[in-house]
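Human: If only I could read backbone structure tokens as easily as an amino acid sequence. Underneath my words sits a plain record pairing an amino acid chain with its backbone structure tokens. Take your time, and here it is.
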Amino acid sequence: MNIVCLDMEGVLVPEIWIAFSEASGIPELRRTTRDEPDYNKLMNFRLGILKEHKLGLKEIQATIAKIDPLPGAKEFLDELRSITQVLILSDTFEQFAMPLMKKLGYPTIFCNSLEVAPDGEITGFRMRCEKSKLTTVKALQSIGYETIASGDSFNDLGMIQASKAGFLFKSTEKIKADYPDIPAFEEFGDLLDAIKKAL
């Protein structure tokens, strides 16, 4: 049994924090897991900036409502789901992901959750588990699945390297140069072909 594990932001949809950085005019919020490998450090940095600017969940969700999947992402996902099981593994939060999942036809997503005060201030975050993408891939393997994984950032490398086949997709030049052994693709058609060959 195969299951394909995909990252969400940067792979299927634009980066939420980059979109919010542009909408809010706060350039510091452009930092993502492509820039900062330590996710806890990155999120605490973001929460500090939100608090400083008195921005909360409502403002971020207003930006997310305007985000559409990357061109071709839904068609790619639909075709992939017609031939194998697909699971989206993301370090985003359910409060961010749900409107985007609707636009992608409600694929299954495993992600994290935000702690939100009654006034909408984001006060913290709860990770589903330690190293959630790698941990999930290993758990799937322990119950008889062979995994194929694809993502674009530092936090995807664990699941990519632990899988029987793994691919970088729309990644950075630095990550591609640092991991030349991982096949890297820019187009959904090429990624789909590579996954089909690995199945």
About this structure: The first strand starts at residue 2 and ends at 6. The chain has a mean pLDDT of 97.
